[in-house]
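Posting for a labmate who doesn't have an account.
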Amino acid sequence: MIKEINVFGIFVPPLFAYAGGSALIWLALRRFLRWAGVYRGVWHPALFNTALYVLILSGCIVAVFHWDH
């Protein structure tokens, strides 16, 4: 069973914590990809960013549940 996470006395669903951690990773990765010039070859940057965030979020969730069991 997935339990809530206590954040300064407020219980939040674990997905919020995973989403926040993924957002930090995504921001750093996006900055690096922009510096590396990857976005010059991307057809639709907004769609690329959304897909990248979903992949990072999924990876974080899978990593947590893999280590949990």
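Reply:
Got it, the structure tokens are right above this. Residues 45-68 form the longest helix (24 residues).
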